[in-house]
Write the structure tokens for this entry.
Amino acid sequence: MSIEQDKYILSVEGLGVSYGDFVAVKDVGFNVLHGEIFGLLGPNGAGKTSTLSSIEGLLKYKTGTIIVDGQDVQQKPLHAKASMGVQLQSTSFQPELNVTQILQLFSGIYGVPMSKDKIKEVLKEISLEEHGRKKFGQLSGGQQQRVSLVISTIHNPKLVLLDEPTTGLDPQSRRQLWERIEAFREKGHAVLLTTHSMEEAEAICDRIAIIDHGRVIAVDTPQALIDKHKNDPEVIAVSRRGKVTLEDVFIALTGKAVRE
Ligand SMILES: Nc1ncnc2c1ncn2[C@@H]1O[C@H](COP(=O)(O)OP(=O)(O)OP(=O)(O)O)[C@@H](O)[C@H]1O
Ligand SMILES: [Mg+2]
């Protein structure tokens, strides 16, 4: 591992993903530092999930290199996967299993089996102590989301990947999730998340990349992006209440058109 790579828990370089003839991701590159919260922002269809799936080893990419914790994702998939915790855009655990059974199953798969007491403790932590015997399919969206987050971090991964973790959550649950994500950072874990919420990006992300039409068009801290673009005529033109926001910059950079 080079000194440069050692700085990063994740390096993505020249990533290209195609579905048949359609090129969804073209030459995407960015680095995530150890212990930072990094946000991937972009309009619908920009290529965020395709990028995440490539990192997670769920999608075979055509070109480029992805290194997680010093391991090449395609050459050393098991080593790379051991460093990652993954929460997908929509979760589909076996809906007929109850929450306790799902926790038992996945802790076993990850090689960190949980005692009954430990399971109770985990359920309490995610405010589901009364729901251990409920089937996963019967939980509300927010409750399912809490279970899937706990499962993605069972093996204490250095890098946690979350695809739209707060979509569909009420404000209380969203704030609570932000706190959980920040707690990962405090413990030294890095987080790569996607979001459509500019508020979220500003509230918790140390740095963000804006991706559009399969390309990274900007990488920086949210504040630095605002400062850099706040006087651009296109940004001022879309700004609504005088004060330039990250959303104004995002819309100016990615255009006003709604994606197909
Ligand atoms: N399995 C697939 N087969 C064909 N095309 C796909 C497939 N998955 C994604 N795409 C296309 O690739 C492009 C990128 O999709 P992707 O899911 O990566 O976008 P995204 O940025 O995650 O969008 P969203 O914000 O809506 O979740 C889109 O045009 C999508 O239609
Ligand atoms: Mg997506």
About this structure: Strands lie at 8-19, 22-33, 37-41, 63-68, 71-72, 84-87, 159-163, 190-195, 207-212, 215-220. The first helix runs from residue 3 to 6. The chain has a mean pLDDT of 93.
